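Bug report

Summary: structure tokens for EPCR protein differ between web form and batch submission.
Environment: batch mode, default settings.
Steps: 1) Submit the sequence below via batch. 2) Compare with the web form result.

Sequence submitted:
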Amino acid sequence: PAAPLAFTMLQVTRVSNGRSSFWGNATLGGRPSHRLEGHRLSQLLPLEPPAAWARRKEDVATYLDYFANMVKLIHMERHIEYTQTLRCRLGCCLFPNGTARSFYDMSLNSTAFLSFHVPTATWERRWPRPDAVATFAHQQLMKYPETTRDLQHFLNITCVDVLRAQSAQTGKQSGRSHTPLVVGLTFGCLALVAMAAGIFLCTGGSC
């Protein structure tokens, strides 16, 4: 059977000694579409016009700055020296029979941490044992529409619509412009911000 068409985004955040580093990429149909290196975000496929892309980059930079500043503040207060690595993987697949599947998974220090159940717009804990950090992060993510309903809409509708448009291309330009794929990265950053307090403040203290 034919392989599914996929849009996949990967974002890795590493925190050590109060400093945050970011790396990520996205692929559409197997082709690189976006790249994140530090705070530099690049669009490798012309999916958004220059003005819209400039706004998108600014939004993402704002979230990354917010997260990095929060980590610095927590480090100054708690002096947390060890390294934490958070990996977010999200996207959607369109199968030849027209069905689709969406996903959002997180791991912390290479261990499954949380996942997003798209049909119900709910986060589920994947940590292998009871843990205050995972519990607090889960509660924080469930508080905001950006990390529940909006994320569900992006994964179920926006992401899949882009794949359907990609699949239906017949050599002539569609009248509808591509929906901005990199909005998924924005949601990924929102999730990081929502989790930051849980991951770092719960460590050695009370949530």
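Above is the batch result. After comparison, the two runs are identical; trailing whitespace caused the diff. The domain at 5-203 is CATH 3.30.500.10 (Murine Class I Major Histocompatibility Complex, H2-DB; Chain A, domain 1). The chain is about 40% helix and 30% strand.
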